[in-house]
Amino acid sequence: xxxxxxxxxxxxxxxxxxxxxxxxxxxxxxxxxxxxxxxxxxxxxxxxxxxxxxxxxxxxxxxxxxxxxxxxxxxxxxxxxxxxxxxxxxxxxxxxxxxxxxxxxxxxxxxxxxxxxxxxxxxxxxxxxxxxxxxxxxxxxxxxxxxxxxxxxxxxxxxxxxxxxxxxxxxxxxxxxxxxxxxxxxxxxxxxxxxxxxxxxxxxxxxxxxxxxxxxxxxxxxxxxxxxxxxxxxxxxxxxxxxxxxxxxxxxxxxxxxxxxxx
Length: 263
Fold this sequence. Notes:
Layout: H1 8-25, H2 42-46, E1 54-55, H3 58-64, E2 69-77, E3 82-83, E4 86-87, E5 89-94, E6 109-112, H4 118-132, E7 140-143, H5 147-155, E8 161-165, H6 166-175, H7 177-181, E9 183-188, E10 192-193, E11 197-200, H8 205-219, H9 225-231, E12 233-238, H10 245-256
Parallel strand pairs: 6-7, 6-8
Antiparallel strand pairs: 1-11, 2-11, 2-12, 3-4, 4-10, 5-8, 5-9
């Protein structure tokens, strides 16, 4: 899911290792493995009954994929705001902006990647909902189509604030320190489990255990250390759908305060 241009090589290496390991664990050495990219129809990929392994965002998991996938587990990321399988989202503003608290953002322009994003929308909405009083809080909410675009919009004064997950913020500081230097965190969201690996819902217990073992082996192997370091992956935890219930709670809490969408 973090397939930025600067990370494509490391992503492809790790995806190939994961695909090969899962195929071998299932006795399917001829199955097609490797990178699929992120430019196609992700929902079609995630709901494909033949899908063996993919990574999804936590919010689509709880809002649209419950009946289509089974959670394998969650990578650990080495970035500020991450702790084991948990991560937070950072509310970012321009480095030279006067804002010091989320309450001071009333009437500003918000950028978000998409409404089905945990960090870009669900966590952002949860941070703002207690302040909004059930009314529009921002003067404008701009859908950008991607976290990088949201950060660039804020840095370029096309927006004033965005909300980005801790992994993206850490990767930006590594891959584009100049852009990162033009932004600063203003606040953090509640910590929740990060982006999960999933398999098709039709996988039986034996297949699920085999996939889990293969994924954990790859994500803790010395052979993938270089690509994992580039992507910020430092471990792996087995997780279930129930572990992601806090994401649904964030949505419910915002709705209960009369704040269904960023506005």
